[in-house]
Specification:
This protein has about 80 residues and is mainly alpha-helical. Helices cover about 45% and strands about 5% of the residues. Helix 1 runs antiparallel to helix 2 and helix 2 (about 30-35) packs parallel to helix 4 (about 60-70).
Length: about 80
């Protein structure tokens, strides 16, 4: 994966704004967890949804919303 080659986990651009917002909006639990472990910025603004929490809740993906809330609250994001 690109992150193994030191790609910027917080790169901005495109429809979703960031990789984290894209993964959250699609409900990809494992990708979300990996990006958060690589210190993806949960407060980044941009893209169609505006921010990570809006992207996570946009399609009703409860599990990724819970993971994101735990991260925002300073807890470890787990399955």
């Amino acid at each position: 994966m690109l992150l193994e080659k030191n790609a910027d986990v917080n790169a901005q651009g495109g429809y979703y704004g960031s990789a984290l917002q894209a993964a959250l909006s699609k409900g990809h639990v494992q990708v979300v967890q990996m990006l958060l472990e690589k210190n993806a910025d949960v407060n980044a603004q941009g893209g169609f949804y505006g921010n990570a929490l809006q992207a996570a809740s946009s399609k009703g993906h409860v599990q990724v919303v819970q993971i994101l809330r735990k991260k925002i609250n300073g807890q470890t994001a787990t399955k």
